[in-house]
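Our consortium's second objective concerns turning raw sequence data into structural hypotheses that experimental partners can test. To show how far this objective has progressed, the report includes one record in full. It was chosen at random from the queue rather than selected for favorable results. The single chain below, 987 residues long, was entered without modification.
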Amino acid sequence: MMSRLLLSSTPLSAIATPFESTRLLFPTHLRNRGNKKTSSLTREERLGFNPAFRLRTFHRRSPHCCLSTPVVGPTSSSSSSSEDSLLYSRAYWVSRSQIAWNVDAENGSCYLYASETACLSVTNDGIQGYDVRIKLEVDNTGLSENVIEKFPHIRDYRPFKVPSTLDVKSLLKSQLAVAIYGSDGKWSTATGLQLPGVLDEIFSYNGPLGAVFSEEAVSLYLWAPTAQVVRACIYEDPLGRDPVEIVTLKESNGVWCAIGPRSWEGCYYVYEVSVYHSSTLRIEKCIANDPYARGLSSDGRRTLFVDLDSDALKPKGWCNLADDKPILHSFSDISIYELHIRDFSVNDPTVDADFRGGYLAFTSQVILKLICSVSWNIPLNDMKALADNQMLESLPPDSDEQQAHITAIQNEDGYNWGYDPVLWGVPKGSYASNPNGPCRTIEFRKMVQALNCIGLRVVLDVVYNHLHGSGPFDENSVLDKIVPGYYLRLNRDGCIEQSTCVNNTASEHFMVDRLILDDLLCWVVQYKVDGFRFDLMGHIMKRTMVKATNVLNGLSKDTSGVDGSSIYIYGEGWDFGEVEKNRRGVNASQFNLRGTGIGSFNDRIRDALLGGSPFGHPLQQGFVTGLLLQPNDHNHGSKADQERTLAGSKDHIQVGMAANLRDFVLTNCDGQEVKGSEVLTYGGSPVAYALSPTETVRVVRVFLMNYIWLLSILLPVIHSSTSTRPRDQLLSLSQVNYVSAHDNETLFDIVTLKTPIEMSIDERCRLNHLATSIIALSQGIPFFHAGDEMLRSKSLDRDSYNSGDWFNRLDFSYNSNNWGVGLPPREKNEKSWPLIKPRIGDPSFKPQSTHILSAVENFLNVLRIRYSSPLFHLRTANAIQQRVRFLNTGPSWIPGVIVMSIEDGHEGVPGLSQLDPIYSYIVVMINVCPTAVSFAIPTARTRTFELHPVQVVSSDEIVRNSTYEALTGCFTVPPRTTSVFVEPRNT
């Protein structure tokens, strides 16, 4: 989940222990890897790592005592000494009957040890302090098939038999270890155990969880099979004071339950869970929120008893909202506009001051700005140290003082994206008028209702792939306190995987999978959101994603007040880290999702259009930014190299414009007929992977990282402070193709950085529109970052997650695009300051209001063109293959020009059905060249093509100069222009 509008995230807390002596044994440069605030790398750069690092707290033991000095320990294996062997969990209790361990036990014996009080220690004589010692025999039948399917990364481990008479349920509440002894009776190695496999087999549970309300009572249910004691502390207030009641829960098969009076509603509670935690080697009393929390206190430290079914929490007409939602005939009709809740209104004087930056800003009569995206994370604090805008505006555009001022207050102001989720099921409190109580629930619902009623659907950006905290003491740790070592994915040493930057979750485990599905159902049924964008979806198992799709699709208006068939799911299908190439099971990566109908972002078209990648040289040019045709000072190789790269980029773009379909046939730059899957990226993998147009999300920018809640639909109208538009003028969109997103530089900034420094501002503005037009006119689902349409700038900030309102400002009055508001924050941008300073310091780089207004009009026009014909958003792969063609192909192509035709059924074309009652044929010409270009299509001779009527009446004089000559079939397009020609039917 991403949080478009977040309060400042709390940094990872120092591990709190009751002891004085603490030692840090991990390298200094890794200490803050899990904390976005302190890392000098962007999130994308950090995703290039697969660190085995984990901050762990444990206690060295003597064989005579269960307590000793705490130490923050190492995270990778080196040796299995008696001192550190229990600090790791290298063996897996994979099922009721098998323990797997990567050891050689041919001539020795293996023993399982348990201590209910966590007093195990390792001495030269072996493991001491145990209550139970069980000999394990080697299982020569090997690991079972279902175990290998669930844990493919340990398929070669040796299995040991667990005696069938063993009381496994009781043992799982203890500290556990296994040890190997040689034939001479001396121990050789020992380690702790990872338990998810056996927990899933014995304790998988489908009953109620969380706080369940009835007419007379409130029942609490908590899944915590390894816990020894669970108590609920009840509070009257969200902050301060002692609990008014402490209730001990009773356990049944791993689920703890208590029943209380209905008067608990409106109170707050936390769980006190006594449980063995492998990170400390102790039984800890962990204080945690309910994993199924549906309400929270303002500081996020207590769970609110809130009944989401209460009529008091439902806006008028809420129960009938399904009937008021905009009609969605096909997912191919979607377009997505990504916007931070705070960005939407915080700087808007036309919005009520009490509503700015919050949910209720979307309920006012001035809501008609382009769409918004909502961010997700639990509230961390509500302090708002405001920047002195008047002082900042007085500083030079290339000064470093603005960023210094913003950086000084960035963790106390009201701005943050919220990359680090703590809990998943509660609306963000800082966007509500009162973060305590049920206000956030009511106001979030009002926001969804208001947006639906003006023709918009709402997509929630969810971050299920990682959690902010772990361990028994971190304030931001929840799930790892309830069932330690279960919810978070561990490596072979038992350390938490952090390839997503922080603590990776493990959807391959039954109750993690269930928690994700339950959370999705809550957002759909209780908050009536219309879709989900999954952050780093490739780190979630494919079966979880498919199951989610099926479960949501099965919802109906009659049973749940929701039409599940209209809920769209898409996400980031990147394949990296410990899940890469299905090492942890079949993951939800781009190539694995084909045929599921789940959309994924297409980074191929992004890189081809803009050049390079988020990880490459910032001046690397692409198809739109001047490669070969208007080179900058960067060394792009020889002219032949540039010609080849440009031609290859064109192939990538054309495949993307055909919805990135793997079986779409086109002529490549070598003149060969190939499928989309046979066009290769520069790394050698296939460009195309989709089987249907809705499985591709078009983006031409950087990786779309956790942004938390997106509204998925676009308004074809501009912000108005006086009136709303008729509903039939609103566009309901649902496709996902993108040129930019919240992370890294904005589209305008990246175009400005990569184009030659001498290029005029007029030309740069045209290229900004050219890039968005390619996305808007492609098959598949177009995706736009808020501000793409108004030349949005963040003063070249490449990672503005915590850069405050100053660098993230959106101006819906169109007076400014926020260019040149100072050098971007030092932490993420200083190495590029030498490139940035001469650009933002030059007044000729700054767009004027006229440029912004023209860009907005052009953007809206291209959307009107997209929705003027169903041919621009075809619903099936077969329809795209039959109707879409790319011309100007092969070795003799005109560099910098893409020509796409879309043919509908008409007289003389047997077998092709008619979809468009207005146009029978469409030709799109994209010219990125600095000069006009003519291109003849022999089959177009004598046809009745004309410039699209939207462009005919456009205020853009340049596009109006586009021409078609029927005698020769020649189309002429002005420089840096996308022109659309249509053949009207006789009617």
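The partners drew two points from this record. The CA atoms of residues 92 and 194 lie 5 Å apart. The longest helix spans residues 639-657. Both points have been shared with the crystallography group to help prioritize constructs.
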